[in-house]
Amino acid sequence: MGALGIVRISGERAIKILEEMTGKSFEHRKATPFFFENFGRGVVVCWYRPNSYTGEDLVEITLPGNYYLINNFIKEIQKRGAIPSLPGEFTFRAFLNGKIDLTQAEAINSLYLALSPQAQRKLSLMAEGFFSNKILELREKLLEIITLTEAQIEFEEEDLEISLSQIEERLSEVIKLTENLLKKSSLQRVEDFFNVIIAGPPNSGKSTLFNKILGYERVLVSEEKGTTRDIISETLFFDGYPVKLWDSAGVFKAKGKINKRAIEITKRAILKANFILYLHEGSIPFKGVEEDLKDFVREKGEIVFTKRDLGIDRENEKFPYPKISALKDEGIDDLMDIIKLKAEEFYKRDEEGDFLLNERQGEILNVFLENLKEAQRVLSERKPLEIFAFHLKRCSEEIMELTGEIKTEEVLNSIFSKFCIGK
User: Fold this and answer.
1) Residues with Cβ < 8 Å from 160, sequence gap 6 or more?
2) CA of 365: how far to CAs of 181, 214, 397, in Å?
3) Residue 307: per-residue pLDDT
4) What is the pLDDT of residue 407?
5) Angstrom distances, CA of residue 277 to CA of 144, 228, 287
6) Are 200 and 206 in contact (CB under 8 A)?
7) What radius of gyration, in Å, describes the C-alpha atoms of the chain?
8) Alpha-carbon span 368 to 366, nearest angstrom
9) Looking at residue 125, what is its pLDDT?
């Protein structure tokens, strides 16, 4: 638990439960300190429907972040009629009550999982409704075309002011807007931490460097060979970019089952890492990287000579590798800059475009564009307007499916089941 814990209650009984517990009423959107007997001093904020996140009466109570205290508080409100929320239920209620559309709900969930600043920025825009506004613009323009087409069909004998060429012009505009929206969007990828593993022979200074980068003594450091046997990781930030840093066992020809197992685990971790810092003690002549790791270090690694305070071997001087002393804090800033640059490159893969679409959104928007172009082809060939109207109807349904106006239970269950409790 953190320093504070928040309990949320939404629904018809939310305000009533609070009033029964406290014996008083609370103003809309006003943070009010209150002492709860048995639970300590907290802060209460009430939102009265429909002006809340869920569109229902909503209560948020902030209490000391003691797990057992919060758990007992929840049991108390359950005695008064509250029931535990399902994953994503608060956001689901917001969706059902028209506070957000489905694309916003999906962005809210993705935002909680986003690691990089780029993904966070794009998903926050989508959660706020900027992407929804673009979709709404498409739908309104599409409805105009559908209305004009239906009028042409219904009043075929009348001399209407609108012509087929004008309908074609408006349809071309919608196609262009859709193409531009897709160009400004990229597909979400499963975001993972940028993983940096510190590897190398025993006693090359791996754990010392690991502790130095973290800024505190996280792992035991010893001159004894094979001190580190387990893979150990910590997460830290480089200019807002999360990096998972791994300390590993020394790579060497080991005796004994435990040492062999530790080295096997290390080698598997090296193969999966995004970036490898392969350390070698600078005073010892460098004869190359372990044969089975050579290609991986060359492709995604940096060889680093360590313990430069003990001197660098004359033959090693000719190599252009960074030379550091973690003990004396020499060359560490330059090494940190290398890690930061690699982290930026890793996370900026999703930098292009304004929005991040999930697979469902991307697929629907692409099918929508295909059907728009098929409708354009039907119209250009002057086929019956009823056929053209049929394609437009399909396009309209796709937009409604994208925003959740057409509610498919299977799709909704799939989306909201991935949410965390309390979202």
Assistant:
1) 151, 152
2) 9, 44, 11
3) 92
4) 76
5) 60, 16, 17
6) yes
7) 30
8) 5
9) 94
Distances (CA, A) of 34 to 4, 52, 245, 266: 15, 21, 43, 53
Scanning 159-256, the segments in alpha helix (DSSP H) are: 164-183, 206-214
Q: Which residues pair with residue 278 across a beta bridge?
A: 199, 303
Q: Which residue has the tokens 């035991």?
A: 220
DSSP state for residue 177 in the 8-state scheme: H
Both tokens of 308, joined, read 């430069």
Would you say 246 and 268 are in contact if contact means Cβ atoms under 8 Å apart? no
Structure token digits, residue 324: 């550091």
Could you tell me which of 383, 389, 412, 328 has the C-alpha nearest to residue 145? 389
Q: Identify which of 416, 357, 387, 373 has the alpha carbon closest to the alpha carbon of residue 135.
A: 357
pLDDT the model gives residue 221: 53
Place of tokens 């008083």: 24
CA distance 6 to 128: 23
d(CA 126, CA 120): 10
pLDDT, residue 200, reads 87
pLDDT of residue 162: 59
Tell me the C-alpha to C-alpha distance, in Å, between residue 289 and each of 51, 176, 256, 321.
63, 54, 23, 13
Q: Which residue has the tokens 């009423």?
A: 25
Long-range residue pairs from 411-415, CB within 8 A, at least 24 positions apart, any chain: 411/360, 412/92, 412/102, 415/88, 415/102, 415/105, 415/106, 415/109, 415/360
Structure tokens at 250: 């020394």
Low-confidence ranges of the chain (pLDDT < 50): 220, 222, 224, 226-228, 254-258
**pLDDT on residue 413:** 81
The reported pTM is 0.79
